[in-house]
Amino acid sequence: MHPRNIYLHKAPDFQELAETYPELKRHLVHSTTNPGTAAIDFRNDESQRCLTKALLHRDFGLKLEVPSNRLCPPVPNRLNYVLWIQDIVQNTHLIESLCLSNFEKENAGIDPWNRKENLDQVRGVDIGTGASVIYPLLICSLEPTWTMYASEIDDLSLSYARNNVESNQLQGRINLVNSSGSFGDSDAGKPILWPLFLHEDVLFDFTMCNPPFYSSTEEVSKSAQGKAFEPNAVCTGADTEMITPGGETEFVSCMIKESIQIQTRCKWFTSMLGKLSSVEEVVRLLKELRVENYAITEFVQGQTRRWAVGWSFMDIRLPDSISRIPSPNPTIQRCLPQHNTIQQPVLLHMIKSTSKEDSQSITERLGKMIKEVLGAVDKAVFREVRGGKSVIKIVTSGEEQESQWQSYFVVRMKEDTWSRNARRRRKRQQQQQQLQTPEHLKGADRMTVDDDDFTQDSVITGEDGRSANGIGCTIHLGMKARERGPAEEQSKEEILIEFHWRWGREEDRGLFQSFCSHVSRKLFTTG
Ligand SMILES: C[S@@+](CC[C@H](N)C(=O)[O-])C[C@H]1O[C@@H](n2cnc3c(N)ncnc32)[C@H](O)[C@@H]1O
Fold first, then answer.
1. Contacts of 45 (CB under 8 A, 6+ apart)
2. ipTM score assigned to the predicted complex
3. Strand, helix or coil at 87?
4. Which superkingdom heads the taxonomic lineage of this protein's source (predicted)?
5. What is the pLDDT averaged over residues 63-71?
6. Distance from the CA of 462 to the CA of which of 267, 274, 405, 515 falls in 20 to 30 A?
7. CA 440, CA 326: separation in Å to the nearest integer?
8. CA distances from 515 to 269, 426, 474 (A)
9. Mutual angle of helices 134-142 and 75-103, in 10-degree steps
């Protein structure tokens, strides 16, 4: 479950819940072995619906009505997806605002990130919102300024969706879009991403979708047989909710192809996937279409495992904690996007610490060292942000942890000026200049490759080490709880430098990686 999911640690106390939503009382199954406790019969669809209504009422202040012959959404599972979307949007805005505030004056008009949008006005799209409108309702409850467009093709679901929007007085924030006539094959009707085509002057922040998973009724029953030993929860989904030609892979593949027409008018496209094999197929298509900026996450609730994939045509780079699954199985491992986060643990001897220094003063000193290293990188623009306000999630040993960083640096650069290749390039340029310079003006002031104090060649993409749009990254310096190490170790904290690639094109990945190793090497060979 997502670390911010309110149901993560709380074992459900149905009796307590029923006190806040009395209608649930008649669905409680009282335990005979453990008096005073009660459960819910998940095989009873009425009980399940009542539980969903009770949770939405107590935890989100929402009202809901769903018909007995349509899906009843389990709240904790749907909340996982919403929280991942929140992470994506928050990170995207963080990167945009860093960019706007830091680099606005430089290259105004050229910087692709220099977009004057109101960052408070987030607009999302939910494809196939269902009778419950569950995602838009949760989003509106958690994020008071966001607005949603929610599409549906099924008349019954649409009419319930409308009532649910109205009973929560959210007509001003949730726009329902009738997408009937939208098929997987957009030649045959409206595209699946119909709300984005319909509102072509609107900039969207994200799309989300819980697609029909199956391709046929046979596949639905085969899947149900496979779950014979799982604890049963009744599924009230109608065919229209569960089945689509070609199944979820075809549905999401269509969205990917359609998204190519939308490009950066929507910052992130996402969809849930119910089968691991679909994740592989979808990632294969993304790579085939050269959509290199993508993210994968996993939602686990009890024994149910789902995945979500996101992709973008923007150069925003999400941190690994959002774009990759920690401790993946081999199949998922093959599908994951490359790392955008590089961690450099700091061993005390690397910075010649005195035993009297505490972690606080060591990080201060490291901060100064980083500043010096950055200051010496030719043509890099950087800024230090202090104040310990940035809380960044870090993933270690498969666990997500939040860490309060003391300070961080925002760095932007357009070309490699530090690697051996860069020095060779500079030398060549100097030689060419010398050839063109009259003999008597030639100086002895030449840099040779031998002067280079780097031991490895850096991998830099692009013939001249230059990037068309530049790259941006942040360097975080902070402490996190020590996971391992001798018990007698005095400090319970570990010092860590984390490099985050924040924006840039895939072809500039090498520039980021080379920059990180340059900074690390400089820090720990001169410190
Ligand atoms: C699995 S249900 C998800 C319902 C709801 N979002 C939820 O998570 O509980 C899939 C929904 O997509 C709708 N749907 C199927 N094809 C669609 C299309 N082309 N455009 C919009 N909605 C579609 C179905 O009618 C159904 O309500």
1. 68, 72, 234, 236
2. 0.99
3. helix
4. Eukaryota
5. 94
6. 267
7. 63
8. 30, 17, 12
9. 50
Q: Residue 385 has which token pair?
A: 């942000």
Whether residue 477 is predicted with pLDDT greater than 70 in this model: the reply is: yes
Question: DSSP 3-state assignment of 149?
Answer: strand
- Cα distance between residue 133 and residue 57, in whole Å: 15
Res. 445: pLDDT tops 60: no
Our answer on whether the CB atom of 182 is closer than 6 Å to any ligand 1 atom is yes
At residue 398, the pLDDT reads 41
Q: What is 14-98+121-335's CATH number, 1.20.1250.20, 3.30.420.10, 3.30.70.360, 3.40.50.150?
A: 3.40.50.150
**Which comes out higher in pLDDT, residue 130 or 95?**
130
pLDDT, tens only, 458-473: 344 444 556 667 888 9
Which residues face 265 on adjacent strands? none
Q: Could you tell me if the CB of 127 is within 6 A of ligand 1?
A: yes
Would you say 492 and 482 are in contact if contact means Cβ atoms under 8 Å apart? yes
Residue 163's identity, in one-letter code, is: N
pLDDT at 183: 61
The model carries a pTM of 0.86
Ligand 1 contact via 310 beta carbon (within 6 Å): no
Torsion over CA of 485, 487, 491 and 493, rounded to 10 degrees? 50
More confident residue, 437 or 159: 159
Residue ranges of alpha helices (H) inside 36-167 are: 45-60, 75-103, 134-142, 155-167
Instruction: Show the tokens assigned to 279.
Output: 């994740």
CATH 3.40.50.150 in the chain: give the residue spans.
14-98+121-335
Tell me the two tokens of residue 85: 């979307």
Q: Which of 252, 246, 248 is nearest to 294 (CA)?
A: 252
pLDDT of residue 188: 61
Residue type, 59: D
Q: Give φ, ψ of 290 to 5 degrees.
A: 60, 35
- Cα 444 to the center of its chain, rounded Å: 53
Distance CA 270, CA 293 (A): 12
Pocket test for ligand 1, best of 48, 64, 71 (most atoms within 8 A of CB): 71
Residue nearest to atom 12 of ligand 1 (CA): 128
DSSP annotation of 243: B
Q: Does residue 511 have a pLDDT over 70?
A: yes
Pull the structure tokens for residue 451. Answer: 């002067």
Measured CA to CA, the distance from residue 315 to residue 502 in angstroms comes to: 8
Query: Distance (Å, rounded) from C-alpha 25 to C-alpha 433?
Result: 86
Task: List, in order, residues 6 or more apart from 162 with CB less than 8 Å away.
Answer: 176
Q: Tens of pLDDT along 362-376?
A: 777 888 888 899 988
Task: Average the pLDDT over each of 216-230, 245-259, 361-375, 404-418 and give the range with the smallest value.
Answer: 216-230
280 C-alpha vs ligand 1 centroid, how far in Å?
Answer: 22
- pLDDT given at position 389: 43
